[in-house]
Amino acid sequence: xxxxxxxxxxxxxxxxxxxxxxxxxxxxxxxxxxxxxxxxxxxxxxxxxxxxxxxxxxxxxxxxxxxxxxxxxxxxxxxxxxxxxxxxxxxxxxxxxxxxxxxxxxxxxxxxxxxxxxxxxxxxxxxxxxxxxxxxxxxxxxxxxxxxxxxxxxxxxxxxxxxxxxxxxxxxxxxxxxxxxxxxxxxxxxxxxxxxxxxxxxxxxxxxxxxxxxxxxxxxxxxxxxxxxxxxxxxxxxxxxxxxxxxxxxxxxxxxxxxxxxxxxxxxxxxxxxxxxxxxxxxxxxxxxxxxxxxx
Length: 296
Ligand SMILES: [Zn+2]
Description:
By secondary structure, the protein is mostly helical. Helices cover 41% and strands 9% of the residues.
């Protein structure tokens, strides 16, 4: 790797192992942690220390799963040409049939993971390139609304603006068919003649292959957009709002979330499609933090 473009390509080639619309944020989140360490001048992440942090990130920003496996990206990144585990060769004997090493083995060997030396030295001199890599990792795996919370949680510091992907036609179409009003709370505030905090949300994330079409869109206020992207709420097939049992708080959550439980969204103007079942099902499976609250 000799040029910035070659490095960007090496990160873009990192293999995802899931298919069929399943989200695979494991490697991106680990790479963001490693970039954050690099910004502090540290090459190695000790598995013992990284494990609880990565576990937390997977719970907060990964798909809802009964079990999370921080050991998988830590071990599997070695096959992507940018990552090494100095203790790795000694652990080869303990590789299981699927090609993974049990987390207890990584812990007891005090395994460390980090970028290859050449890459580490290359990136250390190029803070702008580190930003660009982080931006692409975020862009490829998460919606815009999650970028800042993830940067905060991984400790990546930011020196230039995030490049944003925007499709103004999608936004305009969604706002028009929903009459520039939040489909959940009906908020429709304006400042002068411009919308104030009304956004076009993707049900199935763009980063997960969701299309820019009304079958995959909803007009939402800024708060309900974030709540949808974070999995605090979702919709059932009858377009009724469901709220996660993981949402807690004292002030405001009744007014902002709980009172909408079981209510149908406000539909788009006649003649326009509502969000498709296949995208709603994806959101419930890959984003929504079940279990569902049953009462208000
Ligand atoms: Zn709203």
